[in-house]
Each structure stands twice: as C-alpha cells, then as structure tokens.
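My main concern about presentation is that the manuscript never shows what a single data entry looks like. In essence, backbone conformation is discretised, so a fold becomes a row of integers matching the chain in length. An entry of this sort, consisting of the sequence and the corresponding backbone structure tokens, reads as follows:
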Amino acid sequence: MKPAIILRDLWWRYPAFTGKLNPWALQGVDLEIEAGEFVALTGPSGAGKTTLCSIIAGIIPHAIKVPYGQVNNYWRGSVEVLGEPVTYLEGEGSQAAIRGRGVLSPRVGLVMQDPENQFLRMSVLHEVALGMQILQLPASEIEARAREALKMVNLEHLWPRASLTHPADLSGGQKQRVALASFLAMRPEILVLDEPTSDLDPVGKREVMAAVKSLKEQYGLTVILVEHNPEVIMEFADRVILLDEGRIHYTAPPAVFYNRVDELERHGVMVPEAIRVLHAAGCSLEDHAPVTVQGAAARLAPRLQSMPVPRPDPPPPRGEAVIRVEEVEQSYPDGTVALKGVTLQIYRGEFLALLGANGSGKTTLSKVLCGIYPLSKGKAEVLGLDIRSKKVRSQLPRYVGYVFQNPEHQIFTRSVFDDVAYGLRHMGLPEEEIKRRVARALEIVGLSELAEEDPLFLGKGQKQRLAVASIVAMEPEILIVDEPTTGQDYRMSANIMTLLQELNLQGTTLIVITHDMSLVTTYCPRSVVLREGRVVFDGDTRDLFSSPDLVEEALLYPPQAVQLTWEIQKLKPEWPSLISVKEWEQVLSSGEAKLNENRS
C-alpha cells in the first residue's frame, strides 16, 4: 500500500521583508509515513517541526507570498498526501512555479500549538460544529458528533451550556481540548498535532492522547504529533523522528530511539527519566530502552542491593511571610466560584509550586495575588500591604512580577528589545541601566540575536521566553510564573529554570504554576495543590510525592523518577523517597564512591 504521506528532497525557507535570504527552515527532508501510523516529531525549538506540520497540511508554501521569479530560492521538492499532489515545482529557473492542491481539508486536520489562533470567537458549540456545517452534514449528525468529540476530550460537562460558553471563559488547557475536539468531530484521515496538549495537566494530557490513539485504532487515523515530553511519546507513538536545524537526523521506534542518551541530549531532546537514571547507573542500553518503569526498576534493583541507604537533606528553614491569604473566595460574573476558602502563607525566599488540574483555580489565585483580580471575599496581604485596597493593587506591579501563561497578553511593542525595556522605562530607570538589564535578560533566554525582531513573528516558545525576560529584567521581590517552560525544548527549559533558580538564590520569592511534575520535583521544595478551588495539600514536595494516594487525590501524575522510587521501595522498603533524576544521579554517584571506599 502506498504511504499516506511522501516528502521528497524538501527544502523551504521563509521570505524576509528585507529581501535577504533567511537560512533554510527545512533542508533535504525525505520522509514517508504509512497510513494508520502514529509518528512523533521531536527536536529542539526552531528545528522546523511546526514548519513541517504546516507543509504536510498544505498551508506552506501556498499561503505565503514567494518573490516572483525566485521560487527556487525558497522551495524545492515535492509533497504528496493521500495520493494527492499537495505541493510540487513546475518549470525551471525564473519560470519555476509552485503548484499543487494545497490544503486537503477535511481529510487532513492541523491542530496548532496556540488554540486561540484557530478560534473564530464563537461559542464552544459553534467552534466544534463549524467544520461539519461547512461539510453540510445533517443537523442531527453534527449534534451527535460534537457531543461525542467533547466527550473524547473530557469536556462533556460543558455540553448543556456549550452554545452559551465562549472559549475566552475557559482555561488554557480547556481551550486546547476544544480546538482538538473541533477536528476530532470531522474525523479526518490524517491528524497533525502541533503540541496540542502543552497547556494540559498531566492526567488530562494522557486522557486526550488516549482518545486520539483510540481513534487511530478504530478508524485507521494517521497521526503526526509534535511533542517534547518523552514519556508521552514512549506511551503513544509507533515511531519517533528527530528533527534539528531543518534536517531529519534519526528515526526509530520509541524503545530504540531513546537509547542514544548522550546524542539526544546534545540535540536538546529530553530523554525519559527512567532511562536517564539507568544511564547514570551505568546500565547498558544497547539492545533497547525499557519502555516501562517496572522494566527499568528490574534492571536497576540488583545494583542497589548492597548500596548504603542515603538520607535526603531536610527542607530549608522558612523566612518571614511575604504573602498571607485568609479564607479567600473568588467568583466570576457568571457565578462560577473559582476559589473556596483558600488560606495560605508564602515565605520570603521560597521556591513554591502551585499545582492542580486545569480549572482548579491556580491562575485565579495568582492573579488575585498580583492585583489583577480584586478580592471577592476574604483577606490577603502582599509584603504587608492589604490588597483589598484598589490603590495598593495599582502599586503591586512594582513588587510582584507576573508572567502570563499566554505570552501574547504581555507583548506591547514592535521590537523584542523594546518589549523587555517597556516595564523598565515605566520604572524611570536610566537608559544605560535599561540597556544592561535588557541585554542580560535576552542573553539568558537565548533571544539576543532577535533583539530587533518584531515579536509578532516569533514562535510561541520564543514569545514565552520574551515574556519571562521582560518580567525578570524588572527584578521584582516576588515573581509568579505561569507555565514557564511550555513549548520549550529540554535545553531552553533548563536555561529558564536555572535563571529562576539564580533569582531565588538572590532572594526573589518564586511561585511557579506548572503541569511539569519533573520541574516541581527538581526545583521546588514546597508544593501547594488546588482542587476545585480548595487547597488539598500544602507542604514539602517530597512528602507529596512519597504518597501514591496523595498524588492520586491531587489529580497529579508522578514523574518517572518518582515512579521508579515507588517500584524500588516494593523491593527495598527502606529506600528513601528520591523524587528527581538529579537526586538519583547524586545518590548513584555517591553510593558508588562509598562502595569503592568500602572495598579499599
């Protein structure tokens, strides 16, 4: 049978307004994807993954104006999808022209990374039903498919008010579910997913991907998934493709792909935690990587039998309280109660994780603390200031920095440099100090070379880094960051977290809202978990992830380093609760040293 997708010697570069030639975004890509295959695309930010998705979907190059008579400088090669010539080159030299069918809707669906780019500002029901209405399906079938699609993405509870609920009223994760549902309802033959679950909590991410895989198995759906999370790839993909600098470097089934730990990390690709621990322990990965945590534990256990049992360091002491929240309730105009009796203290110099499923109240609480939302009920103080006062709330941006989950909400100017400088200029700082702070912030987040670029033309991951840089440059006493590593590759995520850790060591109080549990276990000594607007856990992160029951109650999904500890404790009950790869690496390193000392 002919492959569903065939790419031959594909080259593409984006036209520049200046007329100069940009570097190639894709270079010599040859690729075949079989019908019914589930393929994951991974690689560092800027590797060309989103570009490749848009080419397969027929958007690029047809939707982009290429300079007349210079087509060969921008496009080479051919794309065939479902037997249709989507894009090819006709003619030679200055007479060359781009030809082909272009977009194959509804046979091919593309779910973009930012769902708001695909919404038409209608109700949830209209967003899900629009494609089917264009196909002129019967009203009864449209209703049945729309309801089924919302059920697949766990949004069936929205159905009674789906015609009245606007996507703007949903959380970031819920918006992603609606965008995906709109394509699932159309039942395409090929579904291209560009990080479709980046804003979902870990449990929700797996629920949605399980629904996609179920459709694949039921209808023979071909799936192309752009994803950084290796655990999701290991669980759902049939094959993984490593894309870097516009080239395909390596492709293999997941169990083989992640063998090359050192090579993948050089490319900025995250490796599953269980495999990283085995690699640190010196276990051979030549044959195949263990797909399950249980398999990794079985290979690791013999090496731990004679190892001294380590004792993790106690949590750091607390300073003075800089945030006090007492019996806070927060309601929205439609009557939704987002926070219910929240009582909380946050101490100076803490690095705290604010956790919970989508819609649990995390973002609402953070916007109360930085003065964006006025309190509905209760009491809250920040740095001793009563934030029930409108005047106090207007002053909070001087002391409390907030990085939005959607970076579009805090981009104000037409250059990257000016956007980082925006807040600094409003603070009245000297221009030389502004230049120094902007340069340092852009260097840390890897955007120095784009200082004069218009933020409009940045990718979502780059915009996220720009948002972080613009707030970090203001050096606030308290910094709240909503999903700091969403859409970032392994290397850039590490850079951002290292920056936040340095700020914390310098005295900044940090509150991180995240669905990345590996980030939490690596960087955050304390965690607060919200569920349906209530605090269900407030304490040491190690205590949270030492209890499978607590993790389940909090609707969290433990990272593999934690799961590995749980499996080892079944064999060696006295083994301590190691909750991060970093802790495992430290223990394996020190444990080996102790064993060597005992032998001498």
Observations:
- The longest helix spans residues 581-599.
- The chain has a mean pLDDT of 90.
- The first strand starts at residue 5 and ends at 12.
- The chain has three domains: 37-58+104-266, 273-305+561-599, 321-559.
